[in-house]
Every structure is written in structure tokens, then in C-alpha cells.
Amino acid sequence: MTTPTSTVSAQAPSTTSLAAAPDPGRIARRRRLAQWGFVAPAVVFMLLFFGYPLVRNVVMSFQDYTPKTFFTGEAPFNGADNWSHVFQDALFGKALWHTLVFTAGSLLGQFCIGLALAVFFSRRFPLNGVLRSLILLPWLVPMVVSGIVWRRILDQDTGVLNSFLDTLGIGGHTPWLTSPEMALLSVVLVNIWIGIPFNMVILYGGLQEIPKELHEAAALDGASAWRTFRSVTLPMLKPVVTVVLVLGFMSTVKILDLILALTDGGPADATQTLGTLTYQNSFVQLDFGAGAVVGNVLILISAVFAVFYLRANRTEGK
Amino acid sequence: MSKRFTSLALTAHPPAATRRGRGRSRRVLAPFTAVSVLVAGAALAGCGQQRDADTYTVMNSSTDESYHRWDAEAMARCGKELGVTIEQQSVPAAQVMTKALRMASSKSLPDIVQFDASEMPTFADAGGLVDLRTLGLSTDDIPDGIVDFGSYKGTYYGAARSVNTLALFYNKDVLDKAGVRVPTTWAELRETAKKLTRGKQYGLALSAGGAEDGVFQFTPFMWSNGGDETDLDGPKVVEALDYWKGLLKDGSLSKSTVNWTQADVNDQFMAGNAAMMVNGPWQVETLNGDKSLHWGIAPIPVPRTGEDSVGPLGGAVLTVPNTGDEAREKTAGKIVACLASEKEQLTYALNSWMVPANAKAAAVWREKVPELDSLADQVAVARSRTAKLGAGWSSVSLALQSAFQSALTGQSSETALKRAQQRATSGN
Q1: CATH no. for A86-317
Q2: How far apart are alpha carbons A98 and B283 in whole angstroms?
Q3: E strand spans, A101-220
Q4: pLDDT under 50: residue ranges of chain B
Q5: Touching A: B residues 295-354, CB under 8 Å
Q6: Which of A228, A257, B37, B170 shows the smallest number of beta carbons within 10 Å?
Q7: Contact call for A70 and B104, based on CB within 8 A
Q8: Cα–Cα distance between A267 and B409 in angstroms, integer?
Q9: How much is the pLDDT for B12?
Q10: Domain range spanning residue B415?
Q11: pLDDT tens for residues B270-316?
């Protein structure tokens, strides 16, 4: 694909040098200009929509940024006040812990179930396609809608889930969202439900890429199904697994909408995460400096994992 | 990879394509320039918004169809009277403040903003509002409590059209069948709620959700008992929270109370899952939608017989933001005066079931809606949440939410409120 395009665009300098008097400096300059021309839109976009907000957010975390700032444009620097303020808040530690539990729990559940379903659907059987597209539904429903629907399903007295459990005679009065001990678990369960399709689709795609011959060879060697899965499927799937987990991590760690719709961070702050804390600081208390601090911590966590992602990709490229 | 191909091409290709090649690089660059210009142009256009001289904008949170329509009608009437066009811009209630702040920084504030009264002090404190008295608005017929409701540090910034508060709604049929009277004291409420709890039906529903809704609902219990938002761990507040815990322990309240908004509470009441509920007049429109439901309304019970039931004053106020354009601000003041006039207040209040802020309008309203009479009495003694704390209310509110949720899910009221007081004073 790249061959013809690069050939055409590259003709210019070489031919110029032959037609007009050769001027290597000019050729190189023009070539570089064209190269920059290609890169420029991406660079401008990144600077404008990623670089600027990022820098702004970091700067803001060192400023006394209040509603007054919007009128005067002045946000005096206050050193590390915002940072110490946030770190001393008992809620921050709680939120950090909840975020970790939420992310780890969600990823584990989503991935395992997603992988199991992907393996299941890579066999041939009737209605495979229909069922597979039905499983995508949670992905298509807006997060807030899922949140509101699940809030009703999980209601302690009138929820469908408890009514169902009641008819089975087990745990008909489970306080899914109303007990501080249960709420985080319930939120994780809902998020697993939401994340399964994404994991399944990508892993399913990965499974299709594995040559059938490998499985046949393994079968000829007398490997059991489990052994084939462990020694052939999983290693071959590794690059895809990395992508799924890292992308999953980055979309899970910043969770906000689902929790706002399900529990609003409650009861008794049992489901406060870094996402909800940022929201609360910035948009309820209007303490934008403190909100920026929590936001930065989130960015930092994501950045660490982005590095892992890039490294994994690079080794794969070689 | 592609780099290698490029260098190959450089050396290997014949000279024939000179013109084409040069033309290409220009052709490639041209669209980039065009795109950059477009982007820059769009960005600049966003900043320099032109204002039409005779068009005035009101930003409010009337995103519900009926409210939006009532407001549009009122604005059309006032626009006609004043010879201007009034445009309505409605955004979700939770976004009014942040949107207004963003508009302030881009110098594109609307001419009038309708804030929830509990948010107004924050905007006023930032220097964003114009004193309505300097724009010629009078407060003559408005009760002192409601003037305070629209004031911050003694300056009158917000004109309320209507106000609301909380009351006890009850299902007449259920109470009649059980042969109980409407409770007036805490002890009676507790007993009645217990009596009415049977099967799937809880005696009482209220919202203790983790947002302003829950705090709004806690205030009548806190205030009627003599508690105060400046002293969250004071014995009176602890007592009020213990009372809530008692209702929950009796089984008269659903455990889901901590997860309910006021709208959820209304749903539960309408579905027959609760015999009584604490809620506000904005639910009346929905309640009346169910003809088979016979409901009544009473003041929220008080700790001891004969005491005043002090509820929270709720509602929105019309404000004129500080745009620096005095001529426009003057006209905006006239629009606010018209929208909050006795006549418009009455129309709005009758539509929305809220109590008019103006005393004369309220008197007429009482005659027209006798079933909500007790609400008008409650409003007269109701208290504004921000009267004492101003812009500091949001910190206290967050601390209080966390406290009553902790207490309702197991912690002792005292411990929970002690931590809330610490959190509120440290600003965390």
C-alpha cells in the first residue's frame, strides 16, 4: 500500500534535481516541508486538544482557582496547597482504593467472561451470528441508561433481581446498592456486564487470526482441549490480550457516569472513585484547583499504563 | 519500512514527472492551510458573539416540556409589554452554574440567569451579579424571608417568582382504612408509620440520597428540632438524625432510602409502596396524573406539640449577571420585574403548584388552591439554606450527605456528624 504513494510523492525532489540545476539543500528543505505538512494536522490537533488541556490542568492544580477566577481571570498560585489539601482528605485515600478495586474487579470479570464467550463463539453452531450480535447490546446502550435501568433492577424492595432471588428462596433482600459493604461490588458487577461485549469482540477477532493449522497440529500431537488452549491459543492471543486489558484499564479507571447514575458515590461514600471525586470537587464544590489535583492523579495512573501499552506494542511490531 | 521505499524511489525514478511532482506538494499543502484557517476562524467566531440589540436571553433550567412552555409564554407576554424579544435557553439544573461561569470567562453571559437559590450566593460572591434594587426592582410586597432568600450579604440579587418547601404527603385511602389520623408530632409520625407498614407498603418514604435532595429533606427535621447547619455535631442535629435512624430501625422506611432521589420517593408513593412521603409541591402535577390516587398534604411533623415546623425554602431566583453593559442590564432588570410581577407570579404558581413569592399573589393563590393551603403557611416560616453560610453551603451539604448516609447504614449518628463537622470546617 505505501509503496505507490511514497513513490509518487518522492519523485518531486529527485526529478527536480535532474531537470533544474541541482540544489541539494533546497531539495531537502522542500522534502522536509512536505513531511511536516503531513505531520502538521496531527501535531496541531494533539497540541490543541490534548497538550493544552493537559498543561492547563497541571497548572490549575497549583492555583487557587475559584468561581471568582472566571470573572477576573486571576488565579493566584498557591504552591502545593491544593495537593496537600486533597491528600489530607480521608476521602481521597478511600476513593483511590475504590478505584483500584473497581478497576481490577471489572477487568478481571470482563476479561474472563469475554474470553470464555469468544472461545465459545469461535465454534460453529446454529444461531451463532444472531447470539453474538445480541451480546453486543450492552455496549450499544448509553452508559447512563444502563445505570438507571440497573438501579431499578437492583432496588432492594422492588427490584427485579431481588424478586427473582426471592422466588428461588435465596437472598431476596440483598441490599445491592444500599449497603456500603455491597455497593462497590454491585457497581463492579454492572460494569462487568457493560464491558463483556468489548472484550468478547476484540478477543473473538484475535481468535480468528490464529491459523487453524496450529490447532490441527496440536490435535494430531494428542493435546487435550485445555492444553491446546493454554499452549497454543493463549500465547498466540497475547498481543490482543494486552490491547484489550490496557484499553479496558484506561476506560475503567476514569469511571464516572455509571457511578453517578447508580449510586451518586454513596451510600456513605462507599462508591466514590477518583472520577466522582474530581467531579465533586470541580463541579459541586467549584474548587477547580482540588478537582485538577485528583484529575492529574488519574492522568498519571493512565499514563503509566499507556507506557506499558506502547512498550507491548513495540515489542510486538518487531 | 516506508522510508526505505522512499529512498529507492528517489534514486530510481526518471525525470519525466517534474511538473507533476512539484504541483503535488503544493496541492498537498494547500488543503492544510485551508483547514488551519477554517479551524482558527471557527475558534474566533465562537468568541466574538454578536448581540442583537432587541433580543434578550434568559438562561434557566426549565428543561421539562411543561415548565419550558410556561416560561416561554411568560417571556412572550413580557417581551410584548417591553417591546423586546426574549429568548429562552434551558440547560439541565446541575449545569446552570458551570455553564454560567464558562460564559462569564468568555464574556458571553446571557442577560438574565435563573439560578437555584442555593447556588446564587456562589455567583454573587464572585462578583457576577447586579444589585436588583439599583435596577429599580421593588421588594415592597415580598415577605422578608423571601427577600433574604434572594439576597446575599444584604444585597438583593435574585427575584423569586415562586417558592416551595417540603410537606408531608399522605394517601387518604390508606390512612382512612387503617383508621389513623395525620401525624403532627415526631412520636405520632413514628407510631403512624409503623402502623401503616405492612406487606410491601412502607409507612413513610423520604429521600436520604447522596445529593442535595437528601440534605434538603433532612433540614426540616434538623431545623424543627432546633439544630443548626453551623453546628453539625450539636445534640439537636444528632437527635434529628437518630430520629431518622429510628424510623429505619422500625422498618417504617425502606432501606433503599439512602439511594433515592425525591423523584424516586414520589414514584414509590404513587406505586403504593409508601403510605406517606416527604416531598414538595413540584410533584403535584405528577400526582394528579393518577386519578385513582387520593392524597392529602400536611406540615411535616414537629418534635413536640405546638412547635413550629421549619422547612427549607426552595426555588429559583431570577438574576441579572454583571455584563458591564448598563443599558442592557437596565432592560434586563425590567424583564425580571415583569416576570416576577404579581400577575406573572400567580400564573406561574398556579401552573407549577408552587407558592407565589409576592404576598398579595400568595393570598389569591391560597383561595384558588385551598388544598395546598398548609404549604403557604409552611413557606412563610421556611428557612433558606444559604442564609447563614452563603457560598459555604456546598461544603456543609456534602459533609452532611455523607454523615446521614453513614448513620443510616450502621454508624452512630454522633460519630458520623462529628466527622461531618470536621470535614465542613476544614473545607475538605
Answers
A1: 1.10.3720.10
A2: 36
A3: none
A4: 1-29, 44-48, 428
A5: 322
A6: B37
A7: yes
A8: 8
A9: 35
A10: 167-310+389-426
A11: 999 999 999 999 999 899 999 999 999 999 999 999 898 999 999 99
